[in-house]
Amino acid sequence: MQARIAGLSLSLLLLATAGAASAQSSAPAPFTVERVLGEMRTAGIAVSVPADPPAGAIKASEDVEYLRRGAEVLRLDIYRPSAAGPRPAVLILHGGGWESGTRQMERGLAKALAARGFIAIPVSYRLGASGRFPGAVHDVKAAVRWVRANAKRFDIDPDFIAIAGGSAGGHLAALVGASNGVASLEDGAAFDAKASAVQAMVDIDGAASFPDAALIAQEQKRQGATSRFLGGNYVQRRETWFAASPLTYVSPASAPSLFFATNGKSPILPGRVEMAARLQALGLAAEVQDLPAGTPHPFWLLEPWFTPLVGEIATFLDARYKATKP
Predict the structure, then answer these.
(1) What residues have CB less than 8 Å from 258, skipping those under 6 apart?
(2) Which of 79, 89, 161, 176 has the most CB within a 10 Å radius?
(3) CB-CB contact of 146 with 67 (8 Å)
(4) Is the dihedral of CA 297, 218, 243, 229 positive or negative?
């Protein structure tokens, strides 16, 4: 993957830094594929929106309601191979600093994974004040429970449900993957550890921990998306900074995990190397794939990064799925 994208570093580094600075402001611009595409093209970078799979390769069920919270209706989309299942599933969570973005941004990734044999499910979750921790993670775990409960309806193998996400969605995916069996992050009427458990996790450039010196310092100077999601900066909400960190929950019950890391100066995304190391220490499969210097933070949305990424994700999920079978 690195060999195909190593030549764009300087202009991409400038773009990544500028985009991250916008994301840290008090009034971030909405996170959309169109915005990312426009910014990259303005910077002179040759990018394109990924092509959909051939007609007839997949089946779609879109805008399916999975949860109501008061007046707020949460929906998901389901893309599956045309051939009958049961098949492994993967929920996909969009980015946007826990404040913007939509599941529709991840339909391209879902369709591509469906064409490779997975049932791929972009999921909406609450954003902004209503999604403030632990709201968004409650929604995502509810989505996992809904998918497992409806597995037969959609040809899903209920014994293998994975989760993936980019940026803020990557953080939520890592949190769900790390916290299998943790009752304190559930809001269902009756806790069932198996119902919301995931069997693999993919974090695409999302944080795995918050109490990091650089992030603490940044949020002390000016509260950004992290402090808004957590309800305050480190001094104001220290316990929440730990409670919302995937790293806090790593245990033998955690899911095997794959991390993709751009490693730019901004946004600050701590914890991935340490989380992978802790998972490995417990005998769980875990890997951090470092992208070439200068790769922009929202790289997964566009070509030339999209197709290699889909291949890496599919290979990882397929290996984990086969490992669960006799």
Answers:
(1) 200, 201, 202, 203, 286, 287, 289, 312, 313, 316
(2) 89
(3) yes
(4) negative
CA-to-CA distance for 256 and 249, rounded, in angstroms? Answer: 13
Closest by alpha carbon to 177, among 70, 68, 87, 286? Answer: 286
CA distances from 248 to 97, 209, 211, 278 (A): 20, 8, 10, 11
SS3 of 214, please?
helix
pLDDT beneath 70, residues of the chain: 1-28, 189-190
Helix (H, G, I), strand (E, B) or coil at 239: helix
Q: What was the pLDDT predicted at 173?
A: 98
Cα–Cα distance measured from residue 272 to residue 258, given in angstroms and rounded to the nearest whole number? 9
Q: Compute CA 231 distance to the chain's CA centroid, rounded to the nearest angstrom.
A: 21
| Phi, psi for residue 165 in degrees, rounded to 5 | -170, 160
Structure tokens at 130: 């209503």
- Answer yes or no: are the C-beta atoms of 234 and 241 closer than 8 Å: yes
**What is the reported pTM?**
0.92
Rg (CA), the chain: 18
pLDDT reported for residue 163:
98
Decide: 230 and 240 in contact? Cβ < 8 Å: yes
Dihedral sign from CA coordinates of 34, 37, 43, 48:
negative
Pairwise CA distance, residues 22 & 261, whole Å: 20
